[in-house]
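I am still getting used to backbone structure tokens and would like to learn alongside you. Please make up or recall a protein chain and show it to me in full. Would you write everything just below, so we can both look at the same thing?
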Amino acid sequence: MIIDHEDTDFIICPHCGHVHGDSWEWGGKEGDWNNGGCESCGKKFDWMRDVKISYSTSLPEDQTNNEGELK
């Protein structure tokens, strides 16, 4: 049985479903397909790193009062 996984937090083996909790250590360039091997079942598979970026903003403390409202 082959299991495809998309948009997961870790690399998951498509053969046995093993979750590779050390995925960040696998290296690889974002958006490129890489070859890997499962540390559980030993079978080979391809994987891709997809990095998502998000931003947060807030007003500087000197522009707000203690309740976070504008001065």
Observations:
- The chain has one domain: 1-51.
- The chain has no helices and four strands.
